[in-house]
Amino acid sequence: MEAHMTAAGIVHAAASLLEALGAVAHWAVANSWWLALLGAAAWAGWEYLQRRLAAEALSRRTHLELVPTAAFEADSEQIWRQGMQLVQAAGSGPWWTPRRARSVRVRLRADGVRALAYRIEAPASAHALLARTPYGPRVEVQEVAPVADKHRPHVVRAVLTLHGEPGSRLREVPLDPDPLQPLLDAVGDLRAEYGDLAEVCVDLSPAPRWHLAVRRAQAMQRDRAQARREAQRDARWLTRESDDSFPAVVGRLLDPSEWQGRPRRRMVMSPQPRRRGREKVLGKLAHSPGLVRVQILVRCASNEAGRAQARLARISAAMDVYAGPSRLTSLGWSLGPLHLGPDRRPWRGRFDEQWTRAVLRPARGGWAHIQELAGFLKPVTAAARVALMESDMPTYEMGADLLPQGWYRGPDGRERLLATHEDDTLFEVQSGKAGWGKTTRAQVHAIASAHNGRGLAFVDPHGDSFADVSVYLAHEDLIDRVALFDLTVRKDTDMLGCWNLLDMSQHRPPHEVCAAVVEAFAGALGWGDVTAPRALTILTKAVEALVAVNARAVAAKKPAQQATIFQISALLTDTLFRQAAVAALDNEARRWWTDSFPDLPRESLLTVLNPLERLGASPVVRGFLGCPVSGYDIRQAMDDAMVLWICPPGTGPTDRLLISLIVHDFLRAGLSRRDLPEKARWPFRFYLDELISLDHGSSTVLAEITEQLRKFACRLHGMTQLLHRLSPATRAALMQNASCLSTTAGSVEAIAQITEQWPGTVTPADIAALPRWQHYASFTVAGKRIGPLPVRGPALAEVFDGLARPGQVKALHKAAHTHTGARPLAERTTTALAQEAQVLAFLAPVTAHGKTGEQYA
Question: pLDDT tens for residues 440-481?
């Protein structure tokens, strides 16, 4: 009885519940419009709240730029850590942040000024997390302002999504070459003057667990359904038996049981659905670490019609580098010439919201693993070839205080003349074959520097360069600054300047003059305290004596009776001349000549006399170095920003000695500028060909110039065919301090000395095959090294064609000789040969009234 009542109660309760549900359903149907309206209002309110919260969260963003060094390289472990750091940063916003706003954006931006800037935009609370990057000291993290672009009339848009099976992966792109290389190539020819702009934004968000669980279930369900369909298809093929089919007819004809009337026995086993493992079915969805939602937005703009569309097509093609089982494809549909997608309404508003606010609304295939996106999770590495931008290295313009370096062909096929700033270009080394453009390139440098108002000295052992450059120097504002010392003259009427190494007319300290001359000879001849101590002593005492004589002559206002280095021979070998000179010395200086000199063997004097005899054997060199009052004063030229052109007579042993004297005097003059305030040291350049002829095992002049003269505003441009023939000390100093380094074609052994400074970029084989006038060069611009770059050497006519003044060349030559006090060669030679008598004439009164009764052997 009790059980019966319990069952009746349950039935009654069920009936009441059904009645209530029916009433609710009836009410819902009767009020469906009101319920729909209420649901729509609730959804709209929720969506409005989500939008406001998302906008508020996305307005609190930090903007960071990652600036890599030229040597930056990233490995897979660093990229993994960076990716996980970005995922963590994406979820670091306030607790109320909607899912669509929990994202971090990687922005790759190219505008024709910079090749590919790499930015990260994340919640402000993630600033401290992202300020330190796993890439270490080779990537600098800088806080920057949000991007603010000018309006451009032509804009195109695209959304890239992963297309393929849910668990399939993009192609694993190796890190060398850089995965960003196709993108760099696609934007390498952007033109800033046309307003070109290309941006790729990669938005990342952590994968929601419930969403991932649904995706996994869907993947497993699709796989089981696919397996069942395949099993059913196989079963149909196995059990297929059509009487009128050709296979069935042939089978009956060949089956004896059909002839004998016996029934056939056929056993068919139904195929079982294939089973694949969970890892294989889910693919990248199997493991949640490193799995993210991703949307890739692309926008290109320009002020010129058609350029943005062409750029977008190239960027889309660049993304094919990731094509594998899955690939990146653009959303939209194409109907003939009409394309429907993010660039058209009504989809454009959605794109603009995603672009402007970084709202994450990935498409159906927007799931990826960090390892698939490795190329987007790092800045450009050293494994990439980055196109040179105008912001990296300026284009040469006259009057802009720039030095032309070479013609560079950009990705768009245009050539522009690269330039470096005057103040950035300190020391330069050029290497390569003879006749391949080293000297021509140096001439272009020198002309540009002269027109920039800078001083320089160009030493040309070949003697024909002044004829090439004079037409471009013959300007009214330059004529008064040009001086020519041409030692290649042959005729008696040819004009020749002079340089007395012992000239005291400028009232230089005697000890500095002595030290400069002795060090110049010692460096040029390889003398040292170990190799030639006696020769050093003899030369030092002889120079000291003659400098003292010259100081007296200048004090007596008789500078034309000063001694030169050729009177050293008379001092050492002529007793009468020596008596007269020693009489002019003080007691301390005279003591060496009275006590030590008579004991010297005759053979010890030959070491000093031989180079002087070689110099004096040439009438031109004798006239240049043998006259009393100098027209050559490199220190004065530095202070007055003069343009000196020095043409030695050749490159033989004696000529190399003369050039060495000039180079040592350059070092001496540069060091003497310590008496000037730093702001008063006008920059001065020294162009020197054939470095090999100046570099000896014991000579350190070139190394000292690069090591010591930078602070005194002196610059050196050196050229040589074989860099490896320089001494190790000189080569090391030049490489250490060179702000410009270039080479033309040559032997692999010679080129290797340069390419060692460019590891992993250019090989000797690349350079050895260069045609004439082509160079590989690296430069320093605003403290940053650029290159190596392939450049075509500039020629004078194509760079300075508008500066040519052929009608003023004669006036230039006349002024250049006037500034040096040049006289005809015959007059200079006569003066030099008679200078010993002039010095004796000055010393005669000193000898007559002196207290020297000594006789010298």
Answer: 899 999 999 999 989 999 988 766 788 889 999 988 888 989
Q: Which residues pair with 198 in a beta bridge?
A: 110, 300
Burial 825-852 (b: 16+ CB within 10 A, else e): bebbbebbeebbebbbebbeebbeebeb
Pairwise CA distance, residues 645 & 817, whole Å: 11
pLDDT of residue 277: 65
Let me know: does 301 contact 308? Beta carbons within 8 Å.
yes
pLDDT at 856: 39
What is the predicted pLDDT for the residue at 853?
39
Using CA atoms, how far residue 637 sits from 30, 458, 461, 519, 641, in Å, is 105, 12, 20, 21, 6
174 φψ region: left (φ > 0), alpha (ψ -120 to 50), beta (else): beta
Local structure of residue 204 (DSSP, 8 states):
E
Are the beta carbons of 550 and 562 closer than 8 angstroms? Answer: yes
Q: Are 673 and 708 in contact (CB under 8 A)?
A: no
Contacts of 502 (CB under 8 A, 6+ apart): 513, 517, 543, 546, 547, 550, 562, 563, 564, 565
Burial class (CB in 10 A: 0-12, 13-18, 19+), 410: middle
Query: What token pair was written down for 684?
Result: 């001065």
> Taking the CA of residue 321 as centre, how many other CA atoms within 13 Å lie in the half-sphere pointing to its CB?
22
Give me the count of residues in the chain.
857
- pLDDT exceeds 60 at position 267: no
In sequence order, the 6+-apart residues with CB closer than 8 A to the CB of 836 are 566, 567, 570, 577
Measure the CA–CA gap between 565 and 571, rounded to whole angstroms. Answer: 10
Residue 653, CA distances (Å) to 615, 649, 650, 752 in order: 10, 11, 9, 29
pTM to 2 decimal places: 0.76
Yes or no: say if 115 and 188 are a contact pair by the CB < 8 Å rule: yes
Arithmetic mean of pLDDT over the chain:
82
Q: Rounded distance, CA 137 to CA 87, Å? A: 22
Task: Copy the structure tokens of residue 561.
Answer: 């009776």
Residue 599 has what pLDDT? 85
| List of E strands, 31-74 | 61-68
Read off the pLDDT band of 124 (50, 70, 90): confident
Measured between alpha carbons, how far is 778 from 780 in angstroms, rounded to an integer? 7
Stated as kind and residue range, the H or E segment containing 443 is helix 438-451
Read off the DSSP letter of residue 856.
-
